[in-house]
Amino acid sequence: GLLAAKYAPENPDSFYVLGMIYEKRGTFKDAEAAFQQAVQVNNAYQDAYFALGELYADRLNEPHKSVEAFRRYIELGGTHDRARAAVNDADPGPKP
To answer: Which domain holds residue 50?
Structure first.
């Protein structure tokens, strides 16, 4: 993970995998940084945005950031029900 991120800094998958490892280890701020790095390298990385949404919602208690990440995931074509529900719950007004 760390070596891949160090030697392939242009590869967003390295950062995504690193984020997953950090999350499993319980180092959630490190996971956040790794997922952020993944979307910096590739701002259309659906899985990384979804992972950020879950991390903010479940581990870091940052619902606003969670909704932002889930919203970006949906904008990129993501279809996971959890992301849709989070965005729908956050948006005022009538629901489709």
So the answer is: 2-90
